Automatic annotation (TrEMBL):
Protein name according to UniProt: ATP-grasp domain-containing protein
Pfam (any one): ATP-grasp_4
Source organism (scientific name): Pseudomonas batumici
InterPro entries: ATP-dep_AA_Ligase, ATP-grasp, BL00235/CARNS1_N
PANTHER family reported for this sequence: ATP-GRASP ENZYME FSQD (PTHR43585:SF2), FUMIPYRROLE BIOSYNTHESIS PROTEIN C (PTHR43585)
Length: 416
């Protein structure tokens, strides 16, 4: 079998994709950016390749194409949001399966994405585009509260909620600063830089994990992400939903499928984020053309359904046939991820209660990212996630109880 190039994986500690490749007998060539350190030894990785993916993408593309045959590479994919466009261009250049580069560009630009949703008639929040932080004349027609987002960010990086007209200008400038300082390397250089301002939806947040093949859009998992209310929408939980026949879950799945089609994603993964309005109607918020959370979504799908999400995507990227799938996969168990809440900022000293978490019988894996002395700035700047707690449960009730227990047991110790 030809090797698969995996582009710029964010963290070696989130090793789910590598473990899935090893289980599937797929060898990986791990591409990493010139500003990053050589990765540690990982399952299924037979070689590494440093390329200037973000700072000199065209140079990286030419070097990649020139070295593919020698390295035995037969496909390319990524689970990193910032590398989606480059990966699509790389697949096109070497003639292997991938999403079209113009589709990748839609998925990486929140304004263009929302335009595509609107043109397809999807239920999506009202929005405006801002290319000048001093001119907010178009925004006021949306009403308040408003969510402010960098144009090509990821996760909740730089996202802020403005509840009043008085605080709106200051928050616009704060998000603009995050975009200019922290996110500039990852923008499509052919597109103008700006912000998206959209109407705030007060309901719960969900994610629908999809896999797309020639038969259509298949739902592999539906996750409950709680009800983040701002002001900076810190991510906290991901709990798999088993009740796939519930009318709300059915509506979420249908909205997700329509969103994937609106962007033109025709193969591989789609990570669809949705939110409910006050009437419990689902709205498509954003779609990532990747496995979510650097492999977190793979864990949820595999542990709840027994299907290897990463294997499906890797097999498709290599141009190999994938198995037949139902429209919606049933879940036998509830898989979950708990993002350790910051509840503060400053110099990280350690975790309180982590030893108890590691010993809990429903804890599947603990992954921490902060080391002693790590500086976490106040929002909207993003200093990283402290850590993830992965778990598997027999029921929704057990998963809810476990996360409540984590809230009471686990905390961060800050040195200001």
């Amino acid at each position: 079998m030809k090797k698969l190039a995996l582009v710029c994986h964010r963290s070696a500690k989130l090793s789910f994709v590598f473990e899935a490749a090893q289980a599937a007998g797929i060898e990986l060539v791990l591409i990493y950016d010139t500003t990053e350190s050589a990765p540690a030894q990982l399952p299924a990785v037979t070689s590494t390749w440093q390329l200037p993916v973000f700072d000199e993408p065209q140079v990286a593309l030419e070097a990649f194409a020139a070295g593919v045959e020698e390295r035995g590479i037969g496909g390319v994919m990524t689970v990193r949001e910032e590398a989606i466009i480059w990966t699509a261009l790389a697949a096109k250049k070497i003639g292997t399966p991938g999403i079209a580069p113009e589709v990748a560009a839609l998925a990486r630009n929140k304004y263009l994405m929302r335009q595509a949703f609107a043109e397809a008639g999807l239920r999506s929040p009202g929005f405006r585009y801002i290319d000048n932080p001093e001119d907010l004349s178009q925004v006021h027609a949306l009403g308040l509260p408003l969510v402010i987002k960098p144009l090509s960010g990821w996760s909740s990086t730089g996202v802020m909620l403005a509840r009043s007209a008085e605080e709106l200008p200051g928050l616009i400038k704060a998000v603009w600063d995050v975009q200019s300082k922290d996110l500039a390397r990852f923008y499509d250089q052919n597109k103008a830089v700006g912000l998206v301002v959209e109407q705030y939806l007060p309901g719960k947040e969900f994610v629908v994990e999809c896999f797309v093949d020639i038969e259509g859009v298949h739902v592999l998992a539906v996750g409950d992400k709680g009800q983040p209310e701002g002001p900076w929408f810190e991510e906290t939980i991901y709990r798999q939903r088993r009740d796939i026949d519930d009318p709300l879950i059915v509506a979420l799945c249908e909205a997700a499928r329509e969103g994937v089609k609106a962007l033109g994603i025709t193969m591989g993964a789609a990570h669809v984020e949705l939110r409910l309005d006050a009437r419990q109607q689902p709205y498509v918020i954003e779609i990532g053309a990747r496995i979510g959370g650097s492999g977190v979504s793979h864990f949820v799908v595999e542990q709840s359904t027994g299907v290897s999400f990463a294997k499906l995507c890797m097999t498709a990227a290599l141009g190999l046939p994938t198995p037949a799938l139902p429209d919606v996969l049933p879940a036998a168990r509830v898989a979950a991820n708990y993002i350790i809440p910051l509840r503060g900022d400053g110099r990280f000293s350690g975790f309180s209660g982590l030893d108890k978490v590691e010993q809990h019988p429903e804890t599947a894996r603990v992954v921490t990212f902060f080391e002693a002395g790590h500086i976490s700035p106040p929002p909207p700047a993003f200093g990283g996630y402290p850590g993830f707690i992965f778990s598997v449960h027999a029921s929704d009730e057990a998963a809810n109880a476990y996360h409540q227990w984590l809230d009471d047991t686990l905390s961060i110790i800050w040195n200001q």
